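Can anyone check this?
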Amino acid sequence: MKGYRFDDDSQSLTAAITITNDVVIYPGESIVLVETTAARPMDPARFRSWWGTNNVPSRVKIVYAGSGIGLSSSGDGLYLWNAAATANTDFICGVTFGPAPTLPRRTFVYNVDSPGRQTPTPGSLTLVSSNAINGAWIASNGDIGSPGRVIAPIEVQIFAAAGGAALRWPTVPGRSYVLEARTGVGSDGWTVLTNFAAADDYALITQPFDLPARFFRVGTTLLFPAP
């Protein structure tokens, strides 16, 4: 991301902040952009302490240690350009949001189940975090958010059941899930065992005991705005 630029609702390349960190974002990764000032210093350690060191996924990259851009609690926006952009309208994505909730303070979040187009016209963030929804939690000071997550981690439990081994994990009704398997760590590809739209808060899939030992993984489909 080195050379990428971002700005608040002025949507101005000339006013944008340039990311000078050598940051690589891999598929499925999240990053957190933070601002630090003399009055309100912020760095990765402080950020993790604020939200709970064990809550923010360890793989999440926390970048930007400068000042000069502030997101207003009374409403604002955010625009992101790559290093090659030459016009204000060349942004990769942009969002706007209204006044921030208070008591408790809650972050605005992307609604993965009802996406909206965000380029070339900026979208609007209106959904706010709720504790235990899509992986959000309560910070030490009572703030509610989910930095580094757009959904809750999918944690699969495996236990013996009648007729085989049962795989159970939490789901969101209406969201699509896929269960895949392969026979070894280095084996080629994954085989789809089933895919479905969840109807309840949990999925329960049973695999016969007489099958060869296998590795399993569960995925979900998230809908993102069309470019």
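Reply from J.R.: I decoded it. The radius of gyration is 21 Å.
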